[in-house]
């Protein structure tokens, strides 16, 4: 079956399949050997907008060297949670920590250790992709090699086109490269393969696995069961602002498909 967003997977959900080394690793990127294993924690996190409780008593965690996939229906609170963890929003209550630091009060040094890929890309419209990535790489002490990221994600094929003229999928690739160019220790990827063609999705999944295998904590939000099944070492299912299921894929699914488990968990919560 070809990759397919919200693909109807009927097989039992399996671990994201950690593979030593991976294919064609991005050369020269830092290999992290952390003394702590916790990348992200949220504890009783809350954030409301008027009467809407976007994040309502949310507790979960993600480890370094693991891909954590966060799934949930539209409006479940995924983006709000990610933005709190990225230091873009302040929670009303509870605790958020990234690499042990409160992201709201974080220093520039902390922010350099965290990579962020936003859903809308957040890229400057007039920039050309490769020049932009080279510029960003100079802001970091230990950047990933730009040429490798560019060729791995096929960005060289549209290197001369300004961001405003790029297709949605091309922008996604540049946004992913921008999130990884600083060799982050934790990276947040908001629906990284939404809108990508099947080849590009495979390339992105390989790159995410390699990033994980270098010890980086990767947190991915997704609506794709296939993506979660292929990538995740740890699953967090949220609904109505709180966690309705969390664990290793094999434990959470217990021999059933992720799709079945997801619908059961999120239906119960409604
Ligand atoms: N700035 C805001 N002002 C008012 N309401 C907001 C704001 N941001 C988010 N919300 C509301 O908070 C809830 C959670 O939104 P959020 O974007 O976190 O969901 P999501 O899980 O990321 O959804 P999707 O899968 O559609 O991206 C929604 O009801 C949304 O309308």
From TrEMBL:
Task: Report how it sits in the membrane.
Answer: Peripheral membrane protein
Named from the GO MF annotations, one term is: ATP hydrolysis activity
Task: Respond yes or no to whether keyword Nucleotide-binding is given for this record.
Answer: yes
One GO term under biological process is:
response to antibiotic
Where can this protein be found?
Answer: Cell membrane
- Which Gene3D superfamilies does the UniProt record give? P-loop containing nucleotide triphosphate hydrolases (3.40.50.300)
Q: Write down the Pfam families for this protein, in alphabetical order.
A: ABC_tran
Gene Ontology CC entries for this record: plasma membrane
Its main localization is: membrane
Keyword Iron among UniProt keywords:
no
CDD domains named in the record:
ABC_DR_subfamily_A
**Which InterPro entries did the record assign?**
AAA+_ATPase (IPR003593), ABC_transporter-like_ATP-bd (IPR003439), ABC_transporter-like_CS (IPR017871), ABC_transporter_ATP-binding (IPR050763), P-loop_NTPase (IPR027417)
Q: Which PANTHER family match?
A: ABC TRANSPORTER ATP-BINDING PROTEIN
Q: What is this protein called?
A: ATP-binding cassette domain-containing protein
């Amino acid at each position: 079956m070809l990759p397919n967003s919200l693909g109807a997977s009927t097989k039992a959900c399996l671990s994201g399949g950690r593979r030593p080394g991976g294919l064609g690793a991005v050369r020269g990127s830092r290999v992290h050997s952390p003394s702590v294993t916790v990348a992200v924690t949220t504890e009783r996190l809350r954030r409301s907008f008027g009467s809407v409780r976007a994040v309502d008593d949310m507790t979960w965690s993600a480890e370094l060297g693991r891909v954590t996939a966060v799934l949930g229906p539209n409006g479940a609170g995924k983006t709000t949670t990610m933005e709190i963890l990225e230091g873009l929003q302040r929670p009303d209550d509870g605790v958020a920590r990234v690499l042990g630091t409160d992201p709201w009060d974080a220093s520039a040094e902390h922010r350099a250790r965290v990579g962020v890929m936003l859903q809308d890309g957040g890229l400057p419209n007039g920039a050309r992709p490769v020049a932009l990535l080279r510029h960003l790489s100079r802001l970091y002490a230990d950047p990933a090699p730009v040429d490798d990221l560019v060729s791995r994600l096929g960005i060289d094929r549209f290197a001369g086109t300004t961001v405003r003229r790029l297709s949605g999928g091309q922008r996604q690739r540049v946004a992913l490269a921008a999130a990884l160019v600083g060799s982050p220790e934790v990276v947040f990827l908001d629906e990284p393969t939404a809108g990508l063609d099947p080849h590009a999705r495979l390339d992105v999944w390989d790159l995410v696995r390699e990033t994980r295998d270098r010890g980086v904590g990767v947190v991915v939000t997704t609506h794709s069961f296939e993506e979660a099944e292929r990538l995740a070492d740890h699953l967090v299912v949220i609904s109505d602002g709180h966690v309705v299921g969390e664990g290793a894929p094999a434990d959470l699914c217990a021999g059933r498909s992720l799709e079945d488990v997801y619908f059961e968990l999120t239906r119960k919560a409604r």
